[in-house]
Amino acid sequence: MSPQFLWYIPNTVQPGHRGDDTTAGWGSIEYSTELARTAEDHGWGGALLGTGWGRPDTFTVATALAARTTTFKPLIAVRPGYWQPAHFASAAATLDQLSRGRVLVNIVSGIDSPAAYGDSNVEPAARYARTREFLHLVRRLWTEENVTFEGEHFRVTDSTISPHPYASDGRVHPTLYFGGASEAAERVSAAEADVQLFWGEPLEGIAERIARLRELSEQVGRRHAPLEFGLRITTVVRDTTEEAWR
Fold it and tell me: Residue 20 needs a FRET pair 20 to 30 A away by CA distance; which of 93, 138, 149, 177 works?
């Protein structure tokens, strides 16, 4: 996969997100569209849309922005537990077809008010096991017909989604991004993710983690193209270093 350079759209109705001093327009389609079009006009591939309970629904926002842009790729953050895999696979494939292959997906396993949306799976080990099943099943639903799967957390019988994702130039489905630094999270990435996302960290630490994930990929019997890597970095821009740190 060629390198992707993506921006960030806060996807929140509250001003002041991560130090942003904008006070008007948060959560509106006008404000989010302005950010998406600005990213598109300046050569960015797309933008991450953050997720969290109590914020606008990420998938709905992504759909609206895809309809108002031309090349912009929404990196849609979603949570297993909030979505069932077959439901998500169908929704994402539909948007991918409508946008001609512009959907990117960021799978989030961190805990986030699960009781508020009816998720009872809060133990870390179980959450990561569920995420691995979610990634495995979504990928199968995107690429196969009549899928039957019986896992610990999810099951489908004779399931075929329509349409399948938009295919072009060797791309058969949206790229699956995943982040996490725990051993359980890294095993999920090594087995089922397309891209492991890191936070901004010292380069030596990143190099160590890449080497470990490549070794893990062999240990878990990875069946997909080699795992790729990305950095998720927040920039704080001010006139001086002192202002930025403050």
Answer: 177
Residues 163 and 90 sit within 8 Å (Cβ to Cβ): no
21 or 96: whose pLDDT is higher? 96
Which ranges constitute the DSSP H helices of 109-224?
124-143, 183-192, 203-219
Report the CATH number of the 6-245 domain: 3.20.20.30
C-alpha 188/C-alpha 205 separation (Å) is 19
On whether the CB atoms of residues 47 and 9 are closer than 8 A, the answer is yes
List pLDDT tens digits, range 48-82: 998 888 889 999 999 999 999 999 999 999 999 88
Q: What is the residue extent of each domain of the chain?
A: 6-245
Question: What does DSSP assign to residue 135?
Answer: H
Torsion of CA 26, 28, 33, 35, to 10 degrees: 0
Q: What are phi and psi of 122, to 5 degrees?
A: -115, -10
Task: Tell me the angle at which helices 183-192 and 124-143 cross, rounded to the nearest 10 degrees.
Answer: 10
> What is the enclosing helix (H) or strand (E) of 197?
strand 195-199
Q: What is the pLDDT of residues 147-186, one digit of tens each?
A: 999 999 999 999 999 999 999 988 999 999 999 889 999 9
The set of residues, in sequence order, having a beta carbon less than 8 Å from that of 162 and lying 6+ positions away, is: 90
In sign, the C-alpha dihedral spanning 35, 38, 40, 43 is negative
Q: Which residues pair with 104 in a beta bridge?
A: 75, 175
**Partners of 150 in the beta sheet?**
155
Tell me how far apart the alpha carbons of residues 117 and 113 are, in angstroms, rounded to a whole number.
8
* pTM of this prediction exceeds 0.90: yes
Between CA 215 and CA 124 the distance in angstroms is 23
Element (H, E) at 31: helix 29-41
